[in-house]
Sequence to fold (280 residues):
Amino acid sequence: MLADEVAFLLRPRGGGWVIDATVGMGGHAEAILSASDASVSLLGLDVDPEALARAGTRLAPFGERVRLVRSSFRDLERAAGACGIDRARSILLDLGEQSGRGFSFQKDEPLDMRLDPSADASAAALANRLSEAELARIIFEYGEEPHARRIARAIVRRRPLARTGDLVAAVRSAVPRAAWSRRLHVATRTFQALRMAVNDEPGALRQALAQAPALLAAGGRLGVISFHSGEDRIVKRTFRALEPAGFAELEPSPRQPADDEVRENPRARSAKLRVLERLP
Fold:
């Protein structure tokens, strides 16, 4: 997603390290390495061992230019230091979700949503344990869902929930049919909210943003792709706060996908890319 923009804005013009702190399946890493010369190396981080294995296969043609490490982006500084990296030419954070462990409502999967499969609480555990008031807060705050209270009430009434289909059914029963969007699945916001809560994504983002600027070399760039307005606000405020310290956002408004990319991948419509540069 936004692969061309990422490759153009984040490929180093000279040698050095790129850190893809959310390497996923390796798509952005491949685009950056393909656009860079052989003096550029890449450190890819991810908490998901499945994703790392797939990224390893995809990035194998780049050989020793690639190092993959199982780590959360919230531990960016520690992971970079363990690999002997004190400065990076580019750092990328892609905050988009993946499918396969209950991230998607398009398939009936176990209601998991953990990016790190060894983490304690799954989405099912949260949905079945939290109070109705806390569920409503999460769904409203992280999902920006106007029917959060009704959905939380339906979840509590239908407990225990075990699969994505159970959660979809709860949302469908709670949201009036007249309020269903033609463009957005009725359960999208609720799934997003639970995924963010399970993985403490806002907390991880704040921790990563506190570490990444100090890792940038002079002229280095930090790119963040967000899919949620709350996350984009965190990124925007952080970038603006860093301006007096010798940083500048490349553009005042975020880059967004072109219409053809949105047609091919409807989830791309909410993606926003902001890029911060450390001034020479």
Q: What stands out?
A: The beta strands are 16-20, 40-46, 66-70, 88-94, 216-226, 247-249, 272-278. The first strand starts at residue 16 and ends at 20.
